[in-house]
Amino acid sequence: MSVAIFRVCLVVITAIVNHPLLFPKENSTIFENTEEIIQKMKEREESLRLEQLRLEQEIAEQEAKQKTLEKAPEIVEESKEEKVRWDMWTALSMVIFLLIELWRQDFQEGIWQDTGGEEDDMAVLGKAFKGVAFPDKAVLASFYEKRILGTTGDMARMREMVEGFADDLLEALRSVCNRDADMEVEDCMGVGSMYENWRVRKPFVCDLIVPFAPPEPYCFRSQTWCSGGSFPPDEQGYGTIKVCRADEDVTGCICDKTKLGEDMLCLLHSQANTTRPSSEMEDLLCFKNTQYLDADQVMKWFQIAVTKAWNRISHKYEFDLSFSLLDSPGALKIKFRSGKSIAFNLTPVVQYENSDVYFISHFPWSSLAADLSSSTHWFLTFAVYERRFIQLVSKTLPANACHVSCLQILSFLHGKQCSLTGPSGLTNYHLKTVMLHLLQAHPSQDWAPEKLEARLQDMLKFLEKCLHEKKLYHFFIGNGKVPAELGFPIIFQKAEPLNLFRPFVLRRDIYRKTVDTFHEMLRNMSALINEYTVHIPLAETNGIHKESL
């Protein structure tokens, strides 16, 4: 900077010194009025002026650079502050968005039970029904009479035969087991569509559950996902079963939860009670080195026990018994010499406390059950309460009510469509859940036999809505309107609603296939029903409908 100022001053001084007016006119060495001298002086003056301008421009550029360097930290600091402010606004916006989304989901879950009861809500739905020819009352009545009604007698005879044989088989199983070391098997109970009288598609399969308990002095202590256990979202509806001694207080002492150290002993429990040999717990069907009941071990034990029991009583029967499915512990098949066969499921379960909720080692009714990495997690089934609820509500409905008829027709249509286009994510359990929701939402008179067509449309529209939202809540879990007469455990009524369609959120391929199958079923509905129905004049609609139901 100082060098540049010195150069400018030097140029100015030189110009002043060399200016012609500084020389006296009487100086005899200068030729006055000489044009050549004047021209040279002008040229010299012009070159000096240009040099001055150049130097001034350089000084201005250097000053600008100096100012830029001085302001650079301020600009960086301002940009950082601006970025921080922008990040704060972005984070605040995200928090507000997440709060709104959580509120929206909580609001929807809070009113999940108020669906289906209002005609205005149903009128908004049904987009997939545009252009679909829905069968009239006469066609539905004829279809129900010819295709479905005749199967009721077959189901009753099959239930009677299977129950008698299962009781004999379980009695033989108790005789071959060691009462002091093996699990104690109780009487079986029938659940599912065969015992709720809505099974329509063959082959008919009876579902029997068999409660079992550990030998004395042991007992089962269970923990569910809604009782404070740490279960991830994909394991909602599951629980664990711990094998303990009957005199062991697992909740009142911390010795089982905290490492006391080698030089410390629990005054309530001796070392013999707190540390058990690994072989002893494995004999009690526990997972290796734990006290938790292992579903895989239970499956192996039950299959071996059933095989021994059958070998003891096989001479009494003129048929063969075998396991029909490798991944199901009690999927059995009776084979007669004539070539006919009867399939039934005999599944071991563990009772939850003193209720009729059961932990089930295998859940054959759900194709969307999560594939758990641990075999110590057991699925809970509410099948006994579902059967009781249907029986309880049926007492309040009109004679020949159409609720079972709707479920049978829907189950038949879906099964027929799956046989044509392949399996989908929907199961008969989902269809039954839809019926249970609508049974609670609609008044009793809406289920009169002449309203079969309207209620069937309601079930289809409700199912369409659930598929669109990917939300179908379990009927009992989180439902505070369960009738008190059922004696349903309050812990499950207060739990968060369980979405049976959650796998659709995680598996887009299954969801897309399920929706396509549902829409295809709607388009083919008339053709599927007319295949089993003869033409009926419209004038005979009411009479035939009443006679068929």
Short description:
Pfam families: Mab-21_C (PF20266). The chain is an alpha+beta fold. It has helices at residues 2-17, 35-110, 119-124, 137-148, 152-176, 193-196, 271-274, 278-283, 295-313, 383-394, 403-421, 428-441, 452-469, 490-493, 502-506, 508-530, 541-548, and strands at 184-185, 189-191, 205-213, 218-224, 238-245, 319-323, 331-336, 341-351, 358-360, 377-381.
The share of residues in helices is 40-55%
Q: Tell me the span between the first and last alpha carbons.
A: 109 Å
Q: Structural class per helix/strand content?
A: alpha+beta
Overall pLDDT metric:
78
User: Uncertain runs with pLDDT below 50, 5 residues or more?
Assistant: 20-32, 108-125, 267-277, 365-369, 535-549
Output the number of helix runs.
17
Oligomer: single chain
CATH class of the domain at 123-248 and 279-534: Alpha Beta
Q: What is the beta-strand fraction?
A: 5-15%
Q: From the alpha-carbon coordinates, what is the Rg to the nearest angstrom?
A: 43 Å
CATH-defined architecture of the domain at 123-248 and 279-534: 2-Layer Sandwich
- Count of strand segments: 10
Question: Strand-and-helix sequence, N→C?
Answer: HHHHHEEHEEEHHHEEEEEHHHHHHHH
Biggest pleated sheet: 10 strands, mixed
CATH topology of the domain at 123-248 and 279-534: Beta Polymerase, domain 2
- The coarse overall form would be elongated
GO molecular function: protein kinase inhibitor activity
Coiled coil: 31-72
Keywords: Cell membrane, Coiled coil, Glycoprotein, Membrane, Nucleus, Signal, Transmembrane, Transmembrane helix
Protein name: Inositol 1,4,5-trisphosphate receptor-interacting protein
